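Batch manifest line 252
LIGAND: NDP
JOB: complex structure
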Amino acid sequence: MAKIALITGATAGIGEACAHLFAREGYDLILTGRRQDRLDQLAQQLNNTYNVRIAVAAFDIRDREQVSHHLETLPADLKQVDVLINNAGLSQGLDPIQNGNVADWDTMIDTNIKGLLYTSKIVSNWMISNGRGHIINLGSIAGKDVYVNGNVYCATKAAVDALNKGMRMDLLSHGIKVTAIHPGAVETEFSEVRFKGDKDRAKKVYEGFTPLTAQDVAETIWFVASRPAHVNINDLILMPTAQATGTMIHRG
Ligand code: NDP
Ligand code: 8X3
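JOB STATUS: finished
ARTIFACT:
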């Protein structure tokens, strides 16, 4: 029987790259995100290329009822999830705390922390019943190194780092692996979302150096997911060669 991966935030960037890679490796997939059209298009593309089963569920991960409804109504056989990739997340704004936009704070906290929690609670219970599983959390270098004006986004990723450790302890006796991947700068829709559609400002983030690609991160996620049963990678920081810390980037 094929293994199953549930990938949140599969409509773009790292999540979409993971969908391609895990499908290529023969996984059946559950793909989520808000944009139904993108999920449908991706499912069709993966179905045409790989002989795997794809289920899509379009919902806002900030809404606990929606998360519960869409996950709990999946067919029972798809609840045999082997790998959960908690990837959906975003940054909004880059302002000092005193000027911060409170709605942006809510969006980041509700998506990056609460959405991840709602999903993990449901899926970890499935994994406990199935007697196996691997949860892979997308943290960030921003959760390890706070940067100027990064305040709330950095705090949400520090929370992911803490939750990653806590989940590993809580799920230890059930044999469930828990891993965090903490990338540095990855060129995806991320900066465009952070700057609310300002493409020029987003482009500048990646000028003068070679950032990571979504594919680079997906390959690393595949690496951690494909270790032998007795091996778990707890925590992995993945950086562009030109980036030493959260803030130190060598631009040529
Ligand atoms: P993208 O903006 O390209 O993709 C983000 C994904 O998250 C999209 O599929 C989006 O789907 C989904 N998402 C966002 N908000 C919600 C929501 N409310 N409900 C459901 N899905 C949502 O960014 P990346 O691929 O770069 O980011 C993926 C993860 O990696 C995030 O957690 C990010 O914080 C983290 N990360 C990114 C880095 C980077 O430099 N890019 C570096 C370190 C970590 P939709 O809009 O359809 O809902
Ligand atoms: C995204 C990386 O440093 O741009 O998590 O915030 S950073």
